[in-house]
Design a protein that fits this description.
single chain, 115 residues, mainly beta, seven-stranded mixed β-sheet, four-stranded antiparallel β-sheet
C-alpha cells in the first residue's frame, strides 16, 4: 500500500531554514509527480511545489527563490528545503503523489515560524 511519511517540521525563527522530508513507499516513486501542499491555520489547502519525474520543478509565487524541492529516487524520498522563512509560511505541510487513478497524502508535518 502507498505510504507517505513527512518529517522535519518544527519551530523556527523568521529568516531561518528547515528541510522537510517525505519518505515514500508502495509505488514506483521515480515515475510520479510529487508535490508539497500546505495548510495554514484556519485556511484551505495551498499548493506549494511540484517536481516531475523528469526533474522539472514548479513553485507557487510566494515561495519562489526561497524554497527548493528535490527528490532522491534511490531513497524514495522527497525533500523541501525552506530558507528565509516568514511567519506566513506557518502551516502543516503535506506530501502528495498523484497520477492516473492515484492520489495519496501523508499526515503532514507542522512548521511554525515565530520569534
Amino acid at each position: 500500500q502507498v505510504q507517505l511519511v513527512e518529517s522535519g517540521g518544527g519551530l523556527v525563527q523568521p529568516g531561518g531554514s528547515l528541510r522537510l522530508s517525505c519518505a515514500a513507499s508502495g509505488f514506483s516513486f521515480s515515475s510520479y509527480v510529487m508535490s508539497w501542499v500546505r495548510q495554514a491555520p484556519g485556511k484551505g489547502l495551498e499548493w506549494v511545489s511540484d517536481i516531475h519525474d523528469d526533474g522539472n520543478t514548479y513553485y507557487t509565487d510566494s515561495v519562489k527563490g526561497r524554497f527548493t524541492i528535490s527528490r532522491d529516487n534511490a531513497k524514495n524520498t522527497l525533500y523541501l528545503q525552506m530558507n528565509s522563512l516568514k511567519p506566513e509560511d506557518t502551516a502543516v505541510y503535506y506530501c502528495n503523489v498523484r497520477g492516473p487513478g492515484m492520489d495519496y497524502w501523508g499526515k503532514g508535518t507542522l512548521v511554525t515560524v515565530s520569534s
